[in-house]
Amino acid sequence: MLKCDLCPKEYATKTDLEAHRNMHLNIRPFKCPKCPMAFTRADVLRKHKLYKHEGVKCPSSRPRKKQKVVETSDSE
Ligand SMILES: [Zn+2]
Ligand SMILES: [Zn+2]
After folding, report:
1. Residue 12 forms part of a structural domain
2. Which residues make Cβ contacts (< 8 Å) with residue 29, sequence separation at least 6?
3. pTM of the entire predicted model
4. Which intervals hold domain C2H2-type (predicted)?
């Protein structure tokens, strides 16, 4: 594990640790070309572009639907 030198967090990969350290240093290298927002990670920027600019629906912000759990009662 790679430990952050600014806090006790540990990360498995250098990419994750660097993205985390960018957050400490307030460095956001991944800038959105379509709005003034910037991000610490490339994957976060990609999701932002998809959801904000390409009309893709964010899976976490869809209206909550109660899904009935079908219980199978196998009494053997
Ligand atoms: Zn840290
Ligand atoms: Zn944007």
Report:
1. yes
2. 22, 38, 40
3. 0.56
4. 2-29, 30-58
Angle at 6 between CA 4 and CA 9, to 5 degrees: 40
Per-residue tokens: 31: 């800038």
> Does residue 38 lie in a domain region?
yes
**4 CA to centre of ligand 2 in angstroms:** 29
Ligand 2 centre to CA of 56 (Å) is 13
The CA 9 to ligand 2 mean position distance, Å, reads: 29
Distance 9 CA to ligand 1 centre (A): 5
Q: What is the pLDDT of residues 3-43, one digit of tens each?
A: 999 999 999 999 999 999 999 998 999 999 999 999 999 99
CA 17 to ligand 1 center in whole angstroms: 8
Question: Is 50 among the domain residues?
Answer: yes
